[in-house]
Amino acid sequence: MQKSNSADNQQAIVSEAEKGWLAGLIDGEGCIHIDIDKNGAHPYLTVTNSNFTITEKVVDIWHKLGIGCRVQTRHQNIKWNPVKDVQIIGYKRLKPALIAIMPYLVGKSDEALLMYRFVESRLGKRQYGPSSGYTDSELALVEALKTKKLRNRVLRDYTPDHLERVEDIVRATRRRVEAGRNAQPRLISE
Length: 190
Fold this sequence. Notes:
This protein has helices at 7-12, 16-29, 52-64, 91-101, 109-123, 136-152, 162-182, and strands at 30-37, 40-49, 70-74, 83-89. By secondary structure, it is α+β, with helices and mostly antiparallel strands. It has a single domain (7-152), classed as Endonuclease I-creI. Helix 4 (91-101) packs antiparallel against helix 5 and helix 5 packs antiparallel against helix 6 (136-152).
């Protein structure tokens, strides 16, 4: 049996479970973003992980879907494990990637929809590079995506409060001691 290079046949070999797994990973470990610089807008979807088995599975699913991706290994800190970034970059790659995962996304479904609308708008033009300019609606989509990302960011303070922890330990120890003093001796009957 010959393998077809058409996207429809390649998509058929990716199970719904794999698409759901990938979407869940993107929800938890992924980023849907647009960078803007003097050369224009650069939309991308990235999954970053230090478990290379996971990133290899991500690459495998994208390739089964007929979507090219870029893989980059980074060493952020010598104390940390290296990480791999798996990126889908560019309008023509992002559109089928978003179509494949959007039905399964939960946490990043709004970002995916905004990105999809932006990508669709750009691909609808005869020329969609930065020289073609951006419409007000496209700029609004970019701004909405940035605003959504900022709203979803959870800032946590992981600074340990040692004094509070010591007080908790003292209270727990005191309760155990008092419970031991107040306990009535039990007779063991035979």
